[in-house]
Amino acid sequence: MNEVLVRCEGLSKSFVKGGENIEVLRDVTLDLHKGEMVAVLGPSGTGKSTFLHMLGLLDRPSAGSLELFGRNVTSFSDGERARTRNMRVGFVFQAHNLLPELTAMGNVMLPVRLAGNSKAVASTRAKAFLEAVGLGHRLNHQPGELSGGEQQRVALARAMVMGPDMILADEPTGNLDPKTAGGVFELLLDLNRQLGSLLIVVTHSHELAARFPRRLVLEDGRFVEGA
C-alpha cells in the first residue's frame, strides 16, 4: 500500500445554529493513501464539503486529530496552514472561482507565483498545464471569454500546476451539462493518474462515483465504505 497522506482519528466537527449544537462529522477514523482516487457520497447537508474543507486546511476540527503528509496539522498556525495549502493541496470547486481580471495564464500562474517562483517558471508551468487540459489556444483569454467547460478546465490546470500531493474536488462538474461534465470528469481522472496524487471528489452522481476504486458514503456523521 502507498504511503498514508491523510490520517483521521476521532475527527469530529460541530456547529452551533439557533442555540443548538449540530454535529456533522462524528468520530471519523480513516486513512487515505498516495495515488488513491476516492469518491465521497451522501445526501446534501451531511458534511461532505465540511470534510473537504478540513482536509484542505480551510476549517478546523472540533475534536480528534488530523495528520496530513505525516504531520499533525491540528494545531498548525494560520501561516503553516496557508503554506501547506498552497504547496501540497489543489482545489477544484463547483464554481470555478477564477479571477475575472486575469487571463487563463494569469489564473494558473497565480499559485506558482505565490509559492515564490519567478514569472518565467510560473509561465512555463502554466502553459504546460493549460495545454494538457486542451486550452493551449486560449492562454490569453479571460474567464468571461471562455465557456463553462473551458473555465472548469482552467480551474483543473490551476489545481494541478503545483503538482500537489492531494487534490480536493467538490462537485467539480455540478454546473456543467452532462456531456461537458463527462469530458471534464474524465480529464480530471486522467491527469490525476499522471500526477499520482491522492484525489478526493465529492459528487452526488453514483454514475461518476462508480469510476472510482474507492467510495466513501457519509451517513449520520460517519463514513462507510461504499459498494
Give an overview in words.
It is a single chain. The chain is of the alpha/beta class and 227 residues long. The protein has a single domain (4-217), classed as Rossmann fold (3-Layer(aba) Sandwich). The chain is built from seven helices and ten strands. It has helices at residues 48-55, 78-88, 104-114, 119-132, 148-160, 178-195, 206-209, and strands at 4-17, 20-33, 37-41, 63-68, 71-72, 89-92, 166-170, 198-202, 214-219, 222-225. The strands form two sheets. It has a six-stranded mixed sheet with strand order 6-7-8-3-9-10. Strand 4 (63-68) and strand 5 (71-72) form a beta hairpin. It is globular, with a radius of gyration of 17 Å. 38% of the residues are buried. The model has no long low-confidence stretch (mean pLDDT 89).
Brief summary:
The chain is of the alpha/beta class and 227 residues long.
The first-level CATH class name: Alpha Beta
Structural class: alpha/beta
Helix and strand pattern: EEEHEEHEHHHEHEHEE
Identify low-pLDDT runs: none
Strand content: 25-35%
Biggest sheet, spatial arrangement of strands: 6-7-8-3-9-10
Terminal residue distance: 20 Å
What overall form do the CA principal axes indicate?
A: globular
Helical amount among residues, as a percent range?
Answer: 25-40%
Number of helices: 7
Nearest-integer average pLDDT: 89
Counting DSSP E segments of at least 2 residues, the number of strands comes to 10
User: Number of folding domains?
Assistant: 1
